[in-house]
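ok so for the tutorial part 2 we go from a plain amino acid sequence to predicted C-alpha coordinates. step 1 is just haveing the sequence, like this:
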Amino acid sequence: DHVQGIGVNEVGRTFTIRAEDVPVYDLALVKVVDDVDGIVAPGDDVSWTIRVTNQGTAPSGAFTVTDTLPTGVEFVSADHSGTESGGVVTWVSPAVLAPGESVALAMVTTIPLDAADGASYRNWAEISVDGGADEDSTPDATTGSDQTPSDPYTDIDALADSTLDNFNTTDEDDNDDAEITVSTTPPASYD
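step 2 — the prediction. this is what the C-alpha coordinates look like for a chain of 191 residues:
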Protein backbone atom coordinates (compact mmCIF):
# COMPACT_ATOMS: atom_id res chain seq x y z
CA ASP A 1 0.00 0.00 0.00
CA HIS A 2 1.09 3.54 -0.77
CA VAL A 3 -0.08 6.93 0.46
CA GLN A 4 0.52 9.69 -2.13
CA GLY A 5 3.61 7.91 -3.43
CA ILE A 6 5.19 7.28 -0.02
CA GLY A 7 5.44 3.65 1.12
CA VAL A 8 3.57 2.84 4.33
CA ASN A 9 6.79 1.72 5.96
CA GLU A 10 8.15 5.26 5.38
CA VAL A 11 5.30 7.11 7.11
CA GLY A 12 6.63 9.06 10.05
CA ARG A 13 10.01 9.78 8.46
CA THR A 14 10.96 13.40 7.97
CA PHE A 15 12.09 14.60 4.58
CA THR A 16 13.68 17.99 4.11
CA ILE A 17 13.52 19.85 0.83
CA ARG A 18 16.00 22.69 0.73
CA ALA A 19 15.05 25.89 -1.11
CA GLU A 20 18.14 25.55 -3.31
CA ASP A 21 16.88 22.13 -4.47
CA VAL A 22 13.61 23.53 -5.86
CA PRO A 23 13.93 24.75 -9.47
CA VAL A 24 13.13 28.44 -9.88
CA TYR A 25 11.44 29.86 -12.97
CA ASP A 26 12.41 33.50 -13.52
CA LEU A 27 12.66 35.50 -16.77
CA ALA A 28 13.77 39.14 -16.85
CA LEU A 29 13.67 41.78 -19.61
CA VAL A 30 15.84 44.85 -20.21
CA LYS A 31 15.48 47.30 -23.12
CA VAL A 32 17.99 49.88 -24.39
CA VAL A 33 18.36 52.26 -27.32
CA ASP A 34 21.55 51.53 -29.23
CA ASP A 35 22.37 55.24 -29.70
CA VAL A 36 25.14 56.26 -27.30
CA ASP A 37 23.56 59.51 -26.07
CA GLY A 38 19.91 58.91 -26.99
CA ILE A 39 19.83 62.12 -29.09
CA VAL A 40 18.43 61.68 -32.60
CA ALA A 41 17.36 63.89 -35.51
CA PRO A 42 14.07 63.83 -37.43
CA GLY A 43 14.16 61.04 -40.02
CA ASP A 44 16.89 59.05 -38.23
CA ASP A 45 16.73 55.29 -38.01
CA VAL A 46 17.02 54.14 -34.39
CA SER A 47 18.08 50.66 -33.28
CA TRP A 48 16.66 49.19 -30.06
CA THR A 49 17.74 46.02 -28.25
CA ILE A 50 15.71 43.94 -25.81
CA ARG A 51 17.44 41.25 -23.77
CA VAL A 52 15.47 38.48 -22.07
CA THR A 53 17.51 36.50 -19.53
CA ASN A 54 16.62 33.34 -17.66
CA GLN A 55 17.57 34.29 -14.09
CA GLY A 56 16.20 31.02 -12.74
CA THR A 57 17.47 27.49 -12.32
CA ALA A 58 14.82 25.86 -14.55
CA PRO A 59 14.61 26.07 -18.36
CA SER A 60 12.17 28.66 -19.65
CA GLY A 61 8.89 27.81 -21.26
CA ALA A 62 7.62 29.42 -24.43
CA PHE A 63 7.28 33.18 -24.10
CA THR A 64 6.20 36.21 -26.12
CA VAL A 65 7.72 39.70 -26.04
CA THR A 66 5.74 42.74 -27.19
CA ASP A 67 7.09 46.21 -27.85
CA THR A 68 4.69 49.15 -28.08
CA LEU A 69 6.01 51.83 -30.43
CA PRO A 70 5.54 55.47 -29.43
CA THR A 71 2.98 57.37 -31.53
CA GLY A 72 4.57 58.64 -34.75
CA VAL A 73 7.58 56.31 -34.69
CA GLU A 74 7.60 54.07 -37.76
CA PHE A 75 8.56 50.39 -37.72
CA VAL A 76 11.36 49.39 -40.14
CA SER A 77 12.46 45.87 -39.18
CA ALA A 78 12.88 43.28 -36.41
CA ASP A 79 15.06 40.20 -36.10
CA HIS A 80 14.05 36.74 -34.80
CA SER A 81 10.87 36.87 -36.95
CA GLY A 82 9.46 39.84 -35.05
CA THR A 83 6.30 41.20 -36.65
CA GLU A 84 4.55 44.57 -36.38
CA SER A 85 0.83 45.27 -36.34
CA GLY A 86 -0.88 48.46 -35.21
CA GLY A 87 2.28 49.87 -33.64
CA VAL A 88 3.05 46.74 -31.60
CA VAL A 89 6.06 44.57 -32.43
CA THR A 90 5.76 40.92 -31.33
CA TRP A 91 8.31 38.14 -30.99
CA VAL A 92 6.77 34.70 -30.30
CA SER A 93 8.99 32.19 -28.50
CA PRO A 94 12.22 33.44 -30.00
CA ALA A 95 14.08 30.86 -27.88
CA VAL A 96 13.70 28.45 -24.99
CA LEU A 97 16.31 29.66 -22.54
CA ALA A 98 18.46 27.44 -20.35
CA PRO A 99 19.27 28.77 -16.86
CA GLY A 100 21.61 31.77 -17.22
CA GLU A 101 21.03 32.04 -20.96
CA SER A 102 19.85 35.22 -22.75
CA VAL A 103 18.40 36.16 -26.11
CA ALA A 104 18.77 39.61 -27.68
CA LEU A 105 15.89 40.90 -29.82
CA ALA A 106 16.61 43.86 -32.07
CA MET A 107 14.44 46.22 -34.07
CA VAL A 108 14.85 49.40 -36.09
CA THR A 109 12.42 52.33 -36.18
CA THR A 110 12.39 55.71 -37.93
CA ILE A 111 11.80 59.03 -36.18
CA PRO A 112 9.12 61.19 -37.86
CA LEU A 113 10.45 63.87 -40.24
CA ASP A 114 8.22 66.44 -38.52
CA ALA A 115 9.42 65.58 -34.98
CA ALA A 116 9.82 68.74 -32.92
CA ASP A 117 13.07 69.81 -31.29
CA GLY A 118 13.15 68.42 -27.74
CA ALA A 119 10.42 65.85 -28.38
CA SER A 120 11.00 62.61 -26.52
CA TYR A 121 9.87 59.12 -27.45
CA ARG A 122 9.67 56.43 -24.76
CA ASN A 123 9.52 52.88 -26.13
CA TRP A 124 8.29 50.04 -23.87
CA ALA A 125 8.82 46.27 -24.13
CA GLU A 126 7.18 43.56 -22.02
CA ILE A 127 7.12 39.79 -21.60
CA SER A 128 3.45 39.54 -22.48
CA VAL A 129 2.97 35.77 -22.44
CA ASP A 130 5.03 33.26 -20.47
CA GLY A 131 4.60 29.48 -20.43
CA GLY A 132 6.11 29.18 -16.95
CA ALA A 133 5.12 30.29 -13.46
CA ASP A 134 7.58 33.19 -13.04
CA GLU A 135 8.43 33.85 -9.40
CA ASP A 136 8.38 37.66 -9.66
CA SER A 137 6.46 38.64 -12.80
CA THR A 138 2.93 38.85 -14.10
CA PRO A 139 3.14 38.65 -17.91
CA ASP A 140 0.66 40.85 -19.74
CA ALA A 141 0.57 43.36 -22.58
CA THR A 142 0.37 46.37 -20.23
CA THR A 143 3.67 48.19 -20.48
CA GLY A 144 4.82 50.61 -17.82
CA SER A 145 3.89 50.08 -14.22
CA ASP A 146 2.17 46.73 -13.86
CA GLN A 147 -0.41 46.81 -11.13
CA THR A 148 -0.73 43.15 -10.16
CA PRO A 149 1.19 43.06 -7.91
CA SER A 150 2.15 46.71 -7.60
CA ASP A 151 5.14 47.34 -9.86
CA PRO A 152 6.57 50.86 -9.63
CA TYR A 153 8.66 51.95 -12.60
CA THR A 154 12.33 51.00 -12.43
CA ASP A 155 14.62 52.49 -15.08
CA ILE A 156 17.29 50.05 -16.28
CA ASP A 157 19.76 51.36 -18.87
CA ALA A 158 22.27 48.55 -19.44
CA LEU A 159 21.74 45.17 -21.10
CA ALA A 160 24.03 43.58 -18.51
CA ASP A 161 21.45 44.45 -15.83
CA SER A 162 19.17 41.70 -17.17
CA THR A 163 21.16 39.33 -14.94
CA LEU A 164 20.30 41.28 -11.77
CA ASP A 165 17.44 39.57 -9.98
CA ASN A 166 15.28 41.90 -7.90
CA PHE A 167 16.91 45.00 -9.40
CA ASN A 168 14.40 46.81 -7.23
CA THR A 169 12.56 44.59 -4.74
CA THR A 170 9.16 45.77 -6.00
CA ASP A 171 10.00 45.54 -9.72
CA GLU A 172 8.52 42.63 -11.65
CA ASP A 173 11.44 42.78 -14.12
CA ASP A 174 9.25 41.71 -17.04
CA ASN A 175 9.05 45.16 -18.68
CA ASP A 176 11.41 48.05 -19.37
CA ASP A 177 11.67 51.10 -21.58
CA ALA A 178 14.24 53.15 -23.43
CA GLU A 179 13.90 56.81 -24.36
CA ILE A 180 15.28 59.06 -27.08
CA THR A 181 15.15 62.84 -27.51
CA VAL A 182 14.96 64.70 -30.82
CA SER A 183 17.38 67.50 -31.62
CA THR A 184 16.93 69.62 -34.75
CA THR A 185 20.18 71.46 -34.08
CA PRO A 186 22.98 70.09 -36.26
CA PRO A 187 25.97 68.85 -34.29
CA ALA A 188 28.97 71.19 -34.09
CA SER A 189 31.55 70.48 -36.77
CA TYR A 190 35.02 69.46 -35.74
CA ASP A 191 37.56 71.04 -38.09
